[in-house]
Write a structure and sequence with these properties.
By secondary structure, this protein is mainly alpha-helical. The chain has one domain. Helices cover 57% and strands 5% of the residues. A two-stranded antiparallel sheet has the order 1-2.
Length: 86
């Protein structure tokens, strides 16, 4: 799956929404609902580092999930069974 970096950057910087972006074009960002605009250097910095940012977020989620499973004393497969997953 190809990463839509512009969208990922905006979701990271403004996770509560209030914006729309087309591709990775800073000038295409439109703000609404009182969303505070970001500046171009902030966008460019996050754009250059978005893959690292997303990898770090995923590692944190994985660690948190494993810590919870350890605390509950169950495996990931057992958790899926409890939650009705396959």
């Amino acid at each position: 799956m190809e990463l839509n970096k512009g969208k990922e950057v905006m979701e990271y910087l403004r996770p509560n929404g209030g914006w729309v972006i087309y591709g990775e074009d800073f000038d295409s960002i439109q703000y609404f609902d009182g969303c505070e605009p970001i500046d171009k250097p902030e966008f460019d910095n996050a754009l250059a580092n978005i893959e690292s940012i997303l990898n770090a977020q995923q590692q944190t989620k994985t660690s948190q999930r494993q810590a919870l499973l350890d605390k509950l004393g169950i495996t990931e497969d057992e958790a899926r069974l409890l939650l009705g997953g396959n």
